[in-house]
Design brief:
The protein is an alpha+beta fold. The chain has 15 helices and 16 strands. The longest helix is centred in the N-terminal third of the chain and has 20 residues. The structure holds zinc ion (2 copies). One zinc ion (ZN) binds next to helix 7.
Amino acid sequence: MLYNAPRGTRDILPDETRLWQYVEDKFRSVCDRFAYEEIRIPTFEHTEVFLRSVGETTDVVQKEMYTFDDKSGRSLTLRPEGTAGVARSFIEQGMSSNPYPVRLYYLLNLFRYERVGKGRYREFNQFGVEAFGSGEPDMDAEVIALADLFFAELGLKRRLHINSIGCPECRGEYQKLLYEYYLPHAAELCPDCQQRLERNPLRLIDCKVESCRAISRSAPRLLDYLDEDCRAHFDRVLEFLRSLGIEYTIDKDIVRGLDYYTKTVFEFVSENVGTQGTICGGGRYDTLIETMGGEEVPGVGFALGVERLLMELEAQGCLPELAQYPDLFIALQTEAAGAAAAGLALELRRRGLRVVSEVCGRSLRAQLKQADRSAARWVLVLGGNELETGTAELRQMESGERLTVNWCDAAAVWQEIKENKDAN
Ligand SMILES: [Zn+2]
Ligand SMILES: [Zn+2]
């Protein structure tokens, strides 16, 4: 029987895994320098967690969640995004009594039943950060600066697009305006938007259906209707960005597809011709924790799609060469040399070298071919003669240079290889 991975999932094989580890390490390193700490949360949550936070009228909740009843009849959902679970944990673990701000980051696999396409999977990965406890524009600027430094260290060409969607107060007024704007066009809207019009007109702005987009082009934008507080907050964020040297474009069209955002929303967009698109999205969510039953704690964060990021890094030629070669390949001339080879290999690994020794019982000729294919830096052959004399020939593959070493003295072998490695 032949099995395939389910549609929208994929295997990541070692050549590609190295690239994943590269971006993961970089992300952890940047987060670490901003003093953010990693949180790991469950893969599934009670469905209610996402209904309350992400919002019942969003596409994510209405169409894309993997929701199922477990054997005792509880409704559970595979996490479709990271913030809701982190917020649930923040409340449940009493993090509101930690010193503020609580700075967290995560690397998560997520699940959405979506149309599958280039770089779009049903199981996908995001890196993200969440900072809880500060409502100040300083915090927005810090989170944006973190994302920007991450992209800068990867060498990615990108531009920040930023907007404000205000607080519930300014939004209430604006929703009325939106409703009045769309109402005469109601018949031309897609069926989803016809429903959204009554329940949450803000969602109409980011509908992807072309007929809706045409109507939305001249709809009023929230940025023009902010109250004084929200306007001042936004202006301060922009001031920070200018002083940090982070270029931005004010983009009134950004609303983000999730209900919990307030005030600042932003996206990083690729600047590469041909692959433009959003690589990271985030914003402030000052009412989320309260909505989910916690105290009134402001928050701000972002998430970025790792699959999309890797595609973009490749398109921009930013991915490093990460092939890994053995430092040493130990070949066997006789079966009896196997134990000695394994012992030497283990000793060298203890000292930090990447070593392979023959374990497939191949002929010496086949082993040397394998050593060549693996691009091992050095080869050492052990056989009857070497076992008797305690010396062996260490051959450097590239230069053909040969050294006689006392192979029983792992430290000496290590020294030869290491000196050469450091010199390169
Ligand atoms: Zn406001
Ligand atoms: Zn629509």
